[in-house]
């Protein structure tokens, strides 16, 4: 299915990587659903910027009923179902190397919070999309990971563990859903410069990443967003169960 014929949901789509992903899909002519939970003003501003091809909807991705209502609203508004899901929402987390909890102080609750956002959120959106995707014989699920679980420059225990689990989720879903024409992939950026989540990161950390990366620059959200669009495009039609690291070559698979 061409990008211009798709309806794309981006969870956490009002800011940072989510916002750039929404803009990238809109640039290609897709209709976009901007999911938000707290950042209503940013979501509405983004909807106004894009125009008729955008719809902002508030929903907590951890709540299956809210997710189902969001899918229903989007289908009613655009007259056709969501065909592509980008699981990008980040729950209560900042990349702060100073205030992060170390091994002695991290609590199980911290892990639960991130697992709820990453795994439960992705499960809810994937299940909400399944019936329509199966009927169409087409679907794209793109989960947002991180290069930190392969190269933990800073040990963000809870966040990194949840994203490692998300890769397992991605590959299991890819295996089961491929028979229905649904691909499931992951895009893993590095630390991005700069998003709300990375605003607490010091210039010193960014400089370390810059000097140790082959491209000698810190990846920005728009660059990752373009790779996300690739997985929804016809050029990726035979690709599923993959994790594409987009970090300027810092991590090489």
Give structural notes.
The chain is an alpha/beta fold and 253 residues long. It has one domain (3-246): NAD(P)-binding Rossmann-like Domain (Rossmann fold, 3-Layer(aba) Sandwich), CATH 3.40.50. The protein has helices at residues 16-27, 40-50, 64-78, 108-136, 157-177, 203-212, 221-232, and strands at 7-10, 31-36, 54-58, 84-87, 139-146, 182-189, 243-246. Helix 4 (108-136) links the parallel strand 4 and strand 5. Helix 4 packs parallel to helix 5 (157-177). The longest helix has 29 residues, at 108-136. The radius of gyration is 17 Å and the shape is globular. The two termini are 29 Å apart.
In short:
The chain has 7 helices and 7 strands.
The CATH homologous superfamily name equals NAD(P)-binding Rossmann-like Domain
Strand content: 15-25%
Question: According to CATH, what is the topology?
Answer: Rossmann fold
**Count of distinct structural domains:** 1
- Mean model confidence by pLDDT: 92
Rounded to the nearest angstrom, the radius of gyration is 17 Å
Defining traits:
single chain, 253 residues, alpha/beta, Rossmann fold, 7-stranded parallel sheet, 7 helices, 15% strand
